[in-house]
Amino acid sequence: MRLLTFELNGCQRVGAELDGRIVDLQSAFALSVLTTVGFSADALSRAERLFPSDLTRFLGCGSGCFDAARSAYDFATRLSEGMATRGIFYEEREITRLAPITRPPKIICLGLN
Q1: In the chain, which ranges are continuous DSSP H helix?
Q2: Reported pTM
């Protein structure tokens, strides 16, 4: 699973490629929580807390986020084509890929090339 950052409708999201499509991992994780626990505001806030939509924050929150990403990716692989997957899967033409880290905290340059 390769993580990527993309923009959709002006919002930055964390995703991964799966069979030529882009999986919105935060949405897939939220849907997996909702199907497991059932609909509740607590389930949605848990999904938002465990899975930030910014890759810098995602990388900073440790193994919990990576476990959530793996869970979301596995959930997305189990979704069948017949299921309503709008909001989970996107075609490449529907999104804009961004740099993985859109605002790096530090850039180091050396003039020794």
Answers
A1: 25-37, 41-50, 55-60, 63-78
A2: 0.78
